[in-house]
Design brief:
A hairpin with a 2-residue loop joins strand 2 (about 70-75) and strand 3. The chain is mainly alpha-helical. It has a 3-stranded antiparallel β-sheet. It is about 45% helix and about 10% strand. It has 4 helices and 3 strands.
């Protein structure tokens, strides 16, 4: 009896997972001839990257200046490929972006 209950619950969970996968794939349109979602080549701004990284746009520009964040210069502006930023988030030890804080200390008087 316990085995039947477990099997029914597992079947129910698997059905729910299939439904979730279908809903997710329906919300991500595929590019013709590609297995990647349409946003893979999407170009985003520093403000959007800052939202993804949970930091300020200035911190994003600082990372770019140090060549620590994948970016492309387009004229005077800096743009980002959404897929590259998401890969960077997955693979980089610095996420969420850690800012260095310097502690001010006073020297003891002689």
């Amino acid at each position: 009896m316990k085995d039947d209950t477990i099997i029914r619950r597992l079947d129910s969970i698997e059905a729910q997972l299939r439904e979730i996968k279908q809903l997710l794939s329906a919300n991500q349109p595929k590019a013709p001839g590609s297995d990647h979602s349409a946003d893979q080549g999407q170009i985003i701004s520093a403000k959007e990257v800052a939202r993804l990284l949970q930091c300020t746009p200035q911190a994003v520009y600082t990372k770019c200046a140090k060549d620590e964040l994948p970016h492309v210069k387009m004229g005077k502006s800096i743009k980002f490929k959404r897929s590259e930023i998401l890969d960077w988030i997955k693979n980089d030890d610095m996420y969420p972006m850690k800012m260095t804080v310097t502690r001010m200390t006073t020297k003891p008087s002689p």
